[in-house]
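Hey, I was hoping to borrow your eyes for a little while. I've been puzzling over a protein and I'd love to understand its fold better. The fold is given in discrete form, as structure tokens running alongside the sequence. I'd be grateful if you could look everything over and explain what you see. No rush at all, and the record is pasted right below.
>
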Amino acid sequence: MFTGASEVPNTLGLSTTFYQASISGSYRYNQNWVFSAKLPYLDAVRRERGAPTLKISGIGDVTLSATLSPWAGDDSVLGGLGFSFGLILPTGDHRDQPQVGVALPSVFQLGSGTTQLQMGLRYATKINDWSFSGSLSGTVALDANSSDFRPAETYFLSLGASRQVTEKLHAKLSLDFYHGGKDEFRGADISNTGSTTFSITPALIYRMTDDLSVSGSLSLPLYREVNETALTIGPLWSLGASYSF
């Protein structure tokens, strides 16, 4: 998966652009359990009035997770219900001083330096030619890092619908809601962190073979609210390929 995004310049002329390439793998133990791992690589640059002032690149925080679908295979309304839980591990470098400038969020680093718990639930069902899904997830830090930085709790809600357009092409549209609180540094909130975003995301999935699929999506923010002088996120695009064996 390859993802890119830019943050809208604020009144101080600051902006950042980041790209993320990630490798994800899943193993289905049986019809009830699926285990997954995600390894991200990030590249980002901070600009002030168009001139680059800071750049980071490298491995980010690895995610290990499991999904339990207790009623998978059952011909009932609960058949599409699943629960997920996992850990985001502190494999990416973090900053000793996360506050850089007056409008640079603390997330401008490769990793948080903390272990985070991730939990969620998902439901999917099919009605005639349409597939519908909904998911709710959240993350919370289990500790502060060595520099006494603690990332904020985050929540993500997504509601989507998809339909097969041709024999190989699927189209999907989702409404996504994200909310993150303020990060903490040395026991105090970092004022220019935390945001709420509501987006619409169209996506296309093309099945090239029985085992290989490619996809593309574009997330467009419809509503954005940030704290203090934090940067607001712009359009987020993703390209991906999936292979099963």
About this structure: The mean pLDDT is 88. The CA atoms of residues 42 and 159 lie 27 Å apart.
